[in-house]
Amino acid sequence: MMIVEQLRSSHVKNSVIVHIDELLDEQNRQNIESIVEEVNGVTNAHFNATRHHLMVVDYDPKRANSGMILTRVKRQHLHAQLI
Questions:
Q1: Contacts with 61 (C-beta within 8 Å, 6 or more apart), sequence order
Q2: What are the distances in angstroms from CA 9 to CA 3, 54, 68?
Q3: 70 within 8 A of 17, measured Cβ to Cβ
Q4: What are the C-alpha distances in Å from 66 to residues 2, 19, 40?
Q5: Regarding the domain delimited by 12-82, which CATH topology (the fold level of the hierarchy) does it fall under?
Q6: Going by fewer Cβ within 10 Å, which terminus of the chain is more open, N or C?
Q7: pTM (2 d.p.)
């Protein structure tokens, strides 16, 4: 039973949605996704296909947190908040 619990805890994933105030074109959205994916522990970052101001970020809560992700976005001179 201990092995199953260890496997479950090693695959824990959290997600956060980042709302970005600025209107970004496709190239800028791709750049932001790449920059966010550089955060240690982030496993995926992608903008919503129809709501281009929302980015979904998946991360390992043992190595990253939502504050780190938001800080990385804001360092790109963007106005953003977590929702």
A1: 12, 13, 14, 41
A2: 10, 28, 21
A3: no
A4: 29, 12, 12
A5: Alpha-Beta Plaits (3.30.70)
A6: N
A7: 0.85
Q: Can you tell me the distance from the alpha carbon of 59 to that of 3, in angstroms, rounded to the nearest whole number?
A: 23
Q: Where are the domains of the chain?
A: 12-82
**What is the full per-residue pLDDT of the chain (83 aa) written as tens digits?**
444 444 445 567 999 999 999 999 999 999 999 999 999 999 999 999 999 999 999 999 999 999 999 999 999 999 999 99
Which residue in this structure is represented by tokens 């980015």? 55
- Mention every residue, 6+ apart, whose C-beta is less than 8 A from residue 48: 54, 55, 56
Length of the chain as a residue count: 83
Answer for the pair 59, 13: CB distance below 8 angstroms, yes or no: yes
